[in-house]
Specification:
Length: 499
């Protein structure tokens, strides 16, 4: 991933275009096709992405920049494997938004200076984004007007995602600097790296060029996402499904060297564990006693999100280091899924290796983060979009800007001359008209609310107050989360705002 000796050459390339006279699309596309026959996957992806980006970005079939030509030449030499990874490019914004990476780093560092919890929050957010539908920033999306309940509302995320506001801040800053240029998916990948570095990891390159997805659906998580109760076979299976190895599982779980978990994520291990034992016997008894002190038994009407958060690593809980692995070996793994890594002989051997060698783990962890950052990325203008706001797809954002009243009026007006408007069907009394859904009005304190709130004459439900960790399959599937209008009897809930 090092640019190495090619950095000066690449940066020296001017953006002046070279015109390929008399080159038709079909013949120009045969160039990479013949070059690609001896390429490996990375090189093949790079060549095709270069060609497609160069042509579509400029909407001309006969123009390649000198930069594109040089890169193609280097690809042909087999030299740029180091520069470009799976079609993503280190220094992607060098020409279009050179300050982007620096600005994101400054924002992340500022936010972490104000709240240390942002660093683990961003790393987790990035992993959760990439693991489900790839690194497309779908984790950041709010509910769509079509009513898709987004990924972030899934119980598998525990309703405890942190760092969304940091990404919003970075995005709005970058939109001022270079509008519609830096994707939210890239911002998240840079921010996760910067958070890891702020927590003590040596820096690593983040190749960029991801575009943002346009859909996010909580239904994509159940059965596809690791949860705290999983053991090694299931965790390995889930990681393999995403093209990640068992070693990646062990390496990446080391992120639990910083941050923590809310009591409800592991309370099953310290209260009523089984008929034989109240406390999970695989836990160090002293550690279990400390956990019980920090997490008293829950009363039925306690809000789990207000429960205390316990650090994963009691020794160096703000430093991204290998202490997590020593803690595991000392039976102080917080989640069942953490402890599982020492119960399986194969993963235990890896845990022992990483517990011995911090530098090795740090280096391999960075490489694993790079692998995660390439999961199902959207590349090239034909795919996804560069969102203007990370919480909304672009079309939806324009809709949201229309005043709500205007939308309601439009809804009530029957088309005056239906025969002139082919896309609007005449209203026959026997056909049931589908009323278009109103976009959900963004509420400035939505992230802080648990429960219902009122906007004019409608009642909106923000977050379901679950009674603790629910197995993903049993989580209520009715689409009442995240701002869907709740009518009838439920209107009575509309006084129960909690901040
Ligand atoms: C292997 C399966 C994994 C499971 C079951 C799991 C589960 C969890 C749970 C339950 C929490 C606590 C959330 C809370 O209570 O707020 C958590 C926190 C965290 N997870 Fe994981 N995780 C896994 C893998 C990963 C990976 C691969 C990464 C990153 C590469 C990661 C990064 C983090 C971080 C940094 C935190 C702390 C967040 C904070 O303090 O805000 N986790 N994880």
């Amino acid at each position: 991933m090092q640019i190495g000796p090619f950095a000066p050459i690449i940066s020296a390339v001017s953006t002046k275009s070279i015109r390929l006279n008399n080159v038709r699309p079909s013949s120009s596309l045969s160039l990479p096709a013949c070059l690609c026959s001896s390429f490996n996957n990375n090189q093949r992806n790079l060549a095709s992405s270069l060609i497609s980006t160069a042509f579509t970005r400029r909407r001309r079939w006969d123009i390649l920049t000198r930069g594109d030509m040089l890169l193609l030449f280097l690809v042909a030499l087999g030299a740029v494997d180091a520069l470009i990874v799976d079609g993503l490019q280190v220094g992607f914004y060098g020409q279009t938004c050179p300050e982007a990476e620096g600005a994101i780093r400054d924002i992340v560092n500022n936010e972490i200076a104000m709240d240390r919890g942002i660093a683990p929050g961003l790393i987790r957010l990035f992993f959760h984004d990439c693991f489900i539908t790839g690194c497309d920033a779908s984790i950041l999306l709010d509910e769509s007007p079509a009513g898709d309940v987004p990924e972030k509302e899934s119980s598998a995320n525990g309703f405890t995602l942190v760092g969304l506001n940091t990404i919003d801040t970075a995005k709005s800053t970058l939109e001022t600097m270079c509008p519609s240029t830096v994707s939210c998916a890239d911002i998240l990948a840079f921010a996760a790296r910067d958070a890891a570095v702020a927590a003590g990891l040596p820096s690593y390159d983040v190749a960029a060029g991801r575009r943002d997805g346009v859909r996010s659906n909580m239904d994509d998580l159940p059965g596809n996402f690791p949860v705290p109760g999983h053991h090694v076979p299931r965790l390995t299976e889930l990681f393999n499904q995403r093209g990640l190895s068992q070693e990646d599982l062990v390496l990446l779980s080391g992120a639990h060297s910083i941050g923590g978990a809310h009591c409800f994520m592991f309370s099953n291990r310290i209260y009523g564990f089984s008929e034989q034992a109240d406390v999970d016997p695989t836990l160090d008894p002293e550690y279990a006693a400390r956990l019980r002190q920090m997490c008293p038994p829950r009363k039925p009407d306690d809000d789990p999100q207000q429960a205390p958060k316990v650090k994963f690593d009691a020794q160096t809980g703000e430093k991204l280091d290998n202490a997590y692995y020593s803690e595991l070996l000392a039976k102080r793994g917080l989640l069942t899924s953490d402890n599982a890594l020492i119960e399986d002989p194969q993963t235990r051997a890896m845990v022992e290796t990483f517990a011995r060698d911090d530098a090795l783990w740090q280096q391999k962890f960075a490489q694993a983060m790079q692998r995660v950052s390439m999961l199902d990325v959207l590349i090239g203008e034909g795919k996804g979009q560069v969102r203007k706001q990370c919480r909304l797809v672009n079309k939806q954002e324009e809709q949201q800007q229309q005043p709500q009243q205007q939308l309601e009026e439009q809804e009530q007006q029957p088309p005056q001359f239906p025969w002139f408007r082919q896309h609007q069907r005449p209203q026959f009394p026997w056909s049931r008209q589908r009323r278009p859904r109103l976009p959900f009005p963004h509420h400035p304190v939505a992230d802080m609310i648990n429960g219902f709130f009122r906007v004019e004459r409608r009642c909106y439900f923000i977050r379901l107050l679950s009674g603790g960790p629910l197995p993903e399959e049993s989580f209520p599937r009715q689409r009442s989360t995240a701002g869907q209008a709740v009518t009838g009897a439920n209107m009575r809930h509309c006084g129960t705002l909690r901040f």
